[in-house]
Amino acid sequence: MFERFEPDRGARARRHMVAVVAFDGVVLGDLATPCEVFGRVRSPEGRPAYEVRICSLGREVRSEHVTLKAPWRLSSVRRADTVIVPGIDPLDRPLPEELLRALRC
Question: Which residues, including other chains, have CB under 8 Å from residue 77's CB and lie 6 or more apart?
């Protein structure tokens, strides 16, 4: 049985922010799934329950098959309530140092 989503109205006025980090070599399914899942949740009033942001170092991110445009910079990671780091391909590919610094903040 599913429980109805009831946000704590006194906790904060803004929506819970989810930052999904995009980078060259990102696994597309790992990037898209949290965007779809969190982006579809609605409050009892029908409004989006989460603010989902795809964040990256630059405006474009290359995957094996496509190039994506990321609308948000990494500075959104610092303000996020939840940060999701998708998988990378190949697994031994190093993440950029600037990205690692942003995640450590």
Answer: 19, 21, 55, 83, 102, 103, 105
User: What percentage of the chain reaches a pLDDT higher than 90?
Assistant: 67
**Spans of all domains in the chain:** 16-104
pTM > 0.85: yes or no:
no
- Residue whose pair of structure tokens reads 């989460």 in the numeric block: 50
Peptide bond preceding 90: is omega within 30 degrees of 0, i.e. cis? yes
Write out the CATH class of domain 16-104: alpha beta
For the segment 66-89, what is each residue's pLDDT rounded down to a tens digit? 999 999 999 989 999 999 999 998
User: pLDDT higher for 103 or 32?
Assistant: 32
Structure tokens at 19: 């930052």
Contact, 30 vs 96, CB < 8 A? no
List the strands of the sheet with 82-84, edge to edge.
72-73, 50-56, 16-21, 82-84
57, β-bridge pairs: none
DSSP state of 90: S
